[in-house]
Amino acid sequence: MKDRFEKKLNNLLSKLPKTPTSFCIGVSGGADSLALCILLKGFCKKKKINLYAVTVDHQLRPEAKKEAKGVHDFLSNEGIYHEVLVWEHKDIKSDIENQARQARYDLIKNFCKKNKCEYLLTAHHKDDQIETFLINLSRGSGVYGLSGIKEISTQDELTLIRPLLSFSKEEILNFCKEQGIKFYHDNMNDDEKYLRVKIRKNRHLLNEKLDISDDKVILAIQNLSRVRSLIENLVQNHISDSQTQKNVFNKDLFLKADDEVILRSLSNIIMETSNQDYPPTLEKLENLLFSIRENKLPKTLQGVKIDFNKNSITFVKLK
User: Fold this and answer.
1) Do residues 90 and 61 touch, judged by C-beta distance below 8 A?
2) Nearest Cα to Cα of residue 56 among 89, 79, 80
3) Per-residue confidence band for 259, with pLDDT thresholds at 50, 70 and 90
């Protein structure tokens, strides 16, 4: 696995505009992230890349603090720099997964900024890729939702790299066993009230009952990913061609494209203007597009005021 990993990561790094001097990795204490840490340890030593590891204590489980300390002790013994970041919050009664994910990303992003690290590595693997596809399929997602997790993406000023997407969970667990890596198991990963857990526990039925193998799902993701890349190029060209000044767009030119390109353009512009990490829902974007076409009253979406007249569309971040 080490040789395959090194080959994969070298390939990914060759696609970056510059050679990294430091990596940060988010470590949950599970098998995936600890395996990635150990794989990166040798790689970073060879390439003279600084390696930082961080664990977020979400303070949602009583055992989380103890587990974070265990991760700290293990990684420190391995000679890997590690910090525990704590999410301070009040009682959370709904949307726990999304709030925890956003808080985790914000804490790690701030750590990276403080330590001048531009590259964040995560341990998403092949099984995560398949589960994400099935989750989005169950929600009726389009090309973007079904094209899977990218190996390299950008978010804010960070470049996210996911070098384990071609490795299965089984391979990772076998690596941990071979290396004697002791990892923690989060009981929330067994609770079927979460859609991802429900899909994970019943995914085998696709193969057994419908003859839909993991490889077939991955092939579908790869095919859709190529379509997504094509759309992303069209969107970037569309934004550039219709923009007259910062956050201002020629209305006629903006509305001449196909709906898919217009909707994705709106999503990109709103995310960039609001500086938020997640796009508005498709339903909200469709309502916004309808309002612009019908010259309805100005709209506010995700902290951005969208104003328009006969000639232009303007996006302004609200204070």
Assistant:
1) no
2) 89
3) very high
pLDDT of res. 89: 85
Sequence-separated (6 or more) residues with CB below 8 Å from residue 132: 148, 149
- Other CB atoms within a 10 A radius of the CB of residue 18 amount to 8
- Say how many CA atoms lie within 13 Å of 51 toward its Cβ: 25
The letter for the amino acid at 195 is: L
Instruction: Give the chain's end-to-end CA distance (angstroms, integer).
Output: 49
C-alpha to C-alpha distances, 292 to 243, 255, 260, 297, nearest whole angstrom: 16, 9, 15, 8
DSSP H helical ranges for the chain: 2-13, 31-47, 64-77, 96-114, 126-138, 143-146, 169-179, 195-202, 204-210, 214-242, 251-254, 259-274, 282-293
Q: Are 34 and 183 in contact (CB under 8 A)?
A: yes
Would you call 289 exposed, middle or buried from its count of C-beta atoms within 10 A (0-12, 13-18, 19+)? Answer: middle
Helix (H, G, I), strand (E, B) or coil at 295: coil
Q: Is the separation of the CB atoms in 96 and 58 below 8 Å?
A: no
Task: Sort strands 248-250 and 243-245 into parallel, antiparallel or unpaired.
Answer: antiparallel
Provide the pLDDT for residue 75: 96
Contact 111, 87 (CB under 8 A): no
List, as one string, the DSSP characters of 72-107.
HHHHHHTT-EEEEEE-------S-HHHHHHHHHHHH
The backbone torsions φ and ψ at residue 23, rounded to the nearest 5 degrees and listed phi first, read -120, 145
Spatial CB neighbours of 105, under 8 Å, sequence gap ≥ 6? 155, 277
